[in-house]
Each structure stands twice: as structure tokens, then as C-alpha cells.
Amino acid sequence: MPVWKSALAIFYGGTAEEILFRLFLMTLLVWITLSVIYGWLYWKKGLESAMIAHFSTDIVLHMLIPHVIAPLLI
After folding, report:
1. What Cα–Cα distance (Å) separates residue 26 from each residue in 21, 57, 58?
2. In the chain, what is the greatest distance between 2 CA atoms, to the nearest angstrom?
3. What are the structural domain ranges in the chain?
4. Could you tell me which residues come within 8 angstroms of residue 57 by beta carbon, excluding any fewer than 6 positions away?
């Protein structure tokens, strides 16, 4: 196999596979998992419970991690 083809394989593995598996597949799995959890809460405990869980998750993801935890790690 020519050297240039080996070099292209390195870039393919590092970029295309990571984009396909990490970006799309992992995002899909996380989205399905958060949806299942909120759906289960709605089914078992009611709408208010699902709303509170979603609100709590958003506080952690959009406020605590970027504005409180991340500056401490830098």
C-alpha cells in the first residue's frame, strides 16, 4: 500500500470515525436515554415531575458546569 494511502487512513480514522460515532451515535443515545427517563417520570409521577427533572438537568448543564465548575478547572 502506498504511503499516501496510509496517511489518508490515519486522517479518516481520526476524523470521520470520531464524527460518526461520537458526535452522531453518542448524541442519539443520550437523547434517547434523556427522553426515556423523562417519559418514565411523566408516566409514573406526572407532568410536574418530568418538568422538574428537566429543569434540574438544564440547571446543571447550562449553568453549573459552564459557569461554576469549568472555571475552577482552568
Report:
1. 6, 18, 19
2. 62
3. 3-73
4. 34
Q: Which amino acid is at 11?
A: F
Name which residue leads in pLDDT, 37 or 8. 37
Phi and psi angles of residue 29, each rounded to the nearest 5 degrees, phi first: -65, -40
Looking at residue 14, its pLDDT comes to 80
Residues in the chain: 74
Nearest to 38 by CA among 27, 49, 28, 30: 49
Cα separation of 65 and 57, whole Å? 11
Q: Whole-angstrom Cα distance, residue 40 to residue 1?
A: 53
Which residue has 447550562 as its cell numbers?
A: 62
Of the listed ranges 4-8, 38-42, 54-58, 59-63, the one predicted with least confidence:
4-8
In angstroms, rounded to a whole number, what is the distance separating the alpha carbons of residues 68 and 61? 11
